[in-house]
TrEMBL record:
Keywords: Aminotransferase, Pyridoxal phosphate, Transferase. The gene is Gpt2. Its cofactor is pyridoxal 5'-phosphate. It comes from Upupa epops (Eurasian hoopoe). This is alanine transaminase. One of its GO terms (cellular component) is cytoplasm. Signal peptide: none annotated.
Amino acid sequence: GPRGCRGGGTEPDAAWLAAGRQGPMRWSSAAEASAVNINEKVSREKILTLESMNPQVKAVEYAVRGPIVLKAGEIEKELRKGIKKPFTEVIKANIGDAHAMGQRPITFLRQVVALCTYPNLLDSPSFPEDAKNRARRILQGCGGNSLGSYSASQGINCIREDVASYIERRDGGVPADPDNIYLTTGASDGIATILKILISGGGKSRTGVMIPIPQYPLYSAAISELDAIQVNYYLDEENCWALDVNELRRSLNEAKAYCNPKVLCIINPGNPTGQVQNRKCIEDVIHFAWEEKLFLLADEVYQDNVYSEGCQFHSFKKILYEMGPEYYNNVELASFHSTSKGYMGECGYRGGYMEVINLHPEIKGQLVKLLSVRLCPPVSGQAAMDIVVNPPIPGEESYSQFIKEKESVLNNLAQKAKLTEDMFNKVPGMHCNPLQGAMYAFPRIFIPSKAIEEAKAHKMAPDMFYCMKLLEETGICVVPGSGFGQREGTYHFRMTILPPVEKLKILLEKVKDFHIKFLERYA
């Protein structure tokens, strides 16, 4: 052991010997003294307090797991104790957690991960050959053929190759380089890492990060934690939450007065707003980023979740390529995907990837260095990501079951998106834009002035007050729009459309009844 560390080596430490016989004696008498004091609560000032803690961490807010969810947890405990409520269960429609809401896992994905986790199953006749082939390939990429070994910081090579092939297929042949692919711990980790490396400067030259309002609160949280400057641009609710370049320009020009805006974040399909951007809109955004020298972040984790007729997912990477070399060779773009959403809903595996193009070669080394401090993303999550990008293909034995399961999940979500939109739009004092994609409704709600006054008396945002009342009276847990950001004087909430159809219908009925009563009560 290191010298001077008691119990480390066999030789007594010189300083300890010099303390002579007193050493152990002093300690034992101190121990006796503390034994006497054990019942008298003499507590010192804590080192870590709200005043002394990292102020950036204190500033972080994350609404989808915020105060409303803590309250829901308390109510659940009370129900378990048998305390009577006007409902029998809490329905958590606050977070896009598909399996928790009853969605079934995709069989093929679980088979491959099971085979990777317990390779003895490779001899079992109850697993299909195509699943075994993928598991063998993944295991060959693992140190010691085990999912339990660290991988390269950037992720397992063969999986990054599969991601690159997937991107090429998805984008109609646009080339993708495995070397630009980084496997991540869910998309969140990739987004936070890219933001971390981008943020610099002090005072008016501090990095500004442009984010859509409403936004997914990961962005505002990461920006707070990194002490960067949040620059809001507003989506157009009157126009189905469309992104307008004039609004980007307004936002950028105002921000230049107090920071150095150099990052533009796009969420497509939108969270919480569910809009799917058309090609023209994406071209405009790319041109704007090129013109204004902005680093683009494209959060595309809902790329499989597109429901509306006439809507189609276009990746930023593909459109960038089609706009020609002037753009394609210059615009710096990081795109993100995940195992958590889509038809897979595998949130718990924390699998994801990012593709980063046009990075300065020296920055690539810096990015790998930053990632290597965390060693690597969970290898089981990397395996799950592989199945998302390398699913069964026509002619393989698992194909028909895979396609049936995938389409069942997506058709089901499309049905629920329509049901939710229609239902909310029948409620007086509520308006919901079409849910073109993703897995949330973000209806606008009218809150009477009396309720707004009462909310202020409770030091609450009006929509937080509304959501608390909804939770206390119906057991339904949704997230207030104030957690995502919204135009001054408008109120919303975000609700997932993940519960099974029958349960969702009951949930929507309850929300409707609550809303009508709420309007009457505060009229």
